[in-house]
Specification:
This protein has 333 residues and is an alpha/beta fold. It has helices spanning 5-10, 36-50, 61-71, 86-93, 102-105, 164-192, 199-207, 218-225, 263-274, 276-284, 320-329, and strands spanning 14-16, 28-32, 54-58, 79-81, 120-132, 157-159, 193-195, 213-217, 235-238, 249-256. Strands 1, 2, 3, 4, 5, 6, 7, 8, 9 and 10 form a 10-stranded mixed β-sheet that branches. The two termini are 13 Å apart.
């Protein structure tokens, strides 16, 4: 992967957020692995609030994290945002994050950020099983994520194992159940699951009745429901709950790089994202990701985060490198 990274980053989309070129003389540069539309909403609101311009360079979690490792102390990035926390952990372990001030940390509950305070949660998403309501009743649903590896589920569910989203789910399973059980589950998945590329494709496969259900993150379903419903109209969501690995809540992270040449502005951006105004973007926008700010409400369409029965996982313990190795051993990658 490392040898391909310069090509990947060279193709990243660089965007000035609604400002003339003359106003972009001293912008902050955000390496963004979050959804582009959400990052743009944050950047636009931040620029309107502060006058500080933002340039977004778009990529995927681990590709961008590895690019930052390659650039090291010479990285032109000021801020790094991810969809899932493992990319943050890679950069943090390399010692490339600026420790965050307490006023930023205080805006996010302790369970949504690492103890060392080098980065913080900015949003969250829940694992769910989207099922075709014409093919399954509630009594037919898998009680646990582990059940999907049982023979009776062969050919009946879809997933997209190649992306960072699913690998974070596997990393959570690894933390909760250990290597032996995780590898056994992955081998069962290799036997049972219909492999597709992308969570939206997995959802559509369930919606079309090609499979009974799909293991995805919740916001893909809510986003489609808010639009045409073409990929979700025949489906409902099953939340595993009970601290099951299938109830894993993944944290999106944000951090400021030590190499930043605009550190005060970069910290101001992260402060804004985790503040009430930044979290309002999650509540009122179309991302359907969970707000994680202290006492801040998420989109009212979502079931409360506190009621999902998610397992308690330290985000710094999610090892997607080992998860990917086990997935390769099981024949999924």
């Amino acid at each position: 992967m490392t040898n391909r990274l310069p090509v990947v980053l060279g193709a990243l989309l660089t965007l000035g957020i609604g400002l003339p070129v003359s106003a972009q003389e001293n912008p902050i540069v955000v390496y963004n692995a979050q959804h582009e539309t959400l990052a743009q909403e944050w950047a636009t609101a931040f620029t309107e609030e502060t006058g500080i311009p933002v340039i977004i360079r778009q990529g995927s979690d681990l590709e961008v994290a590895n690019q930052i490792l390659q650039e090291g102390t010479n990285s032109p990035a000021d801020v790094f945002l991810t969809e899932n926390s493992p990319g943050m952990v890679l950069v943090d372990k390399a010692g490339l994050f600026e420790p965050l001030p307490q006023d930023i940390l205080d805006q996010v509950p302790a369970q949504f950020r690492p103890q060392n305070g080098n980065w913080t949660g900015i949003a969250a998403r829940s694992t769910v099983f989207a099922y075709n309501a014409e093919k399954l009743s509630e009594t037919d649903l898998p009680k646990t994520m582990a059940a999907l590896a049982e023979p009776e589920w062969k050919g009946r569910w879809a997933a997209s194992p190649s992306g960072a989203d699913f690998q974070a789910i596997v990393a959570a399973y690894l933390v909760l159940e250990g290597e032996v059980s995780t590898l056994d589950w992955l081998k069962g998945m290799q036997e049972n699951a219909v492999i597709v590329r992308g969570n939206r494709a997995a959802l559509a496969t369930a919606n079309n009745g090609e499979v009974d259900g799909a293991l995805i993150y919740h916001y893909y379903w809510f986003g489609d429901q808010a639009g045409t419903k073409e990929s979700s109209g025949n489906t409902k969501l099953h939340y595993f709950g009970n601290q099951d690995p299938g109830a894993f809540v993944s944290i999106s992270g944000g951090g400021v790089l030590k190499s930043s040449q605009h550190k005060d502005e970069a910290l101001s951006f992260l402060h804004f994202i985790t503040s009430a105004k930044g979290q309002d973007v999650l509540r009122d926008g179309a991302s359907f990701e969970y707000a994680v700010g202290v006492d801040h409400a998420s989109n009212p369409a979502l079931p409360p985060l506190t009621e999902l029965g998610a397992p308690d996982i330290d985000p710094t313990q999610l090892d997607t490198v080992r998860a990917a190795e086990l997935m390769t051993e099981a024949g999924l990658l």
